[in-house]
């Protein structure tokens, strides 16, 4: 199960990144590099994690015109990340063009093809937030709509709340990847994420990879915290 745990490195300290990756590279499947760390350190953060023995989920949620997103995705691929994401709301063509370009470059340059994901609805959003954006659908309906668009584009899966995992699985099939943030140990706090679930519930709901940050990063013993989350995941089987 530990390969299905992704640790979110939402920090801006490369020395701490190095220490955490050294400590936990054998305990988690990937380390998530998001906007904070990437803006602070750039590709050096990705390379540092790889040098210490970790795999990277580059969580920059690309959202722009198709050509721009595809070029950014190609550079992420050249960095050697295992997974990256875009925003599904960027359009079907944006995602299709990204998939085409990444596959083309991987063939031409003999690169490993990363898992390509699209973000559906952020776990911090609820129905009232969608309404203010002009989206009339309930959260699950909007998530499924975007997940189907993602599958049509040829991407590997989505980033979505674990609460929508079952409806995504039903709509998109077993091979479609579901990566879920908003995971909290049953003992933990929710912080600013509203649609959350514990690791055991998430795996049972059909989530393939869970993303955990503060419950491990802020723990007195990060190693013990990571192992406890993996143990919770294993209790789902």
Question: What about the largest sheet?
Answer: 8 strands, parallel, barrel
Question: Any idea what the CATH superfamily is called?
Answer: Aldolase class I
How many beta-strand runs? 8
The CATH topology: TIM Barrel
Gyration radius, to the nearest Å? 17 Å
Average pLDDT, rounded to a whole number, is: 94
Spatially, the strands of the biggest sheet line up as 1-2-3-4-5-6-7-8
User: Would you state the CATH class?
Assistant: Alpha Beta
Strand content: 15-25%
The helix tally amounts to 11
Spans where pLDDT lies below 50 across 5 or more residues: none
Account of the 3D structure:
With 237 residues, this protein is an alpha/beta fold. The chain has one domain: Aldolase class I (TIM Barrel). Helix content is 48%, strand content 15%. The protein is built from 11 helices and 8 strands. It has helices at residues 14-24, 35-41, 43-52, 66-79, 92-109, 127-132, 139-153, 165-172, 199-205, 214-217, 222-234; strands at 5-8, 30-33, 56-62, 83-87, 115-119, 157-159, 177-180, 209-212. An 8-stranded parallel barrel has the order 1-2-3-4-5-6-7-8, surrounded by 6 helices. Helix 5 links the parallel strand 4 and strand 5 (115-119). Helix 5 (92-109) packs parallel to helix 7 (139-153), helix 7 runs parallel beside helix 8 (165-172) and helix 9 runs parallel beside helix 11 (222-234). The protein is globular, with a radius of gyration of 17 Å. The model has no long low-confidence stretch (mean pLDDT 94).
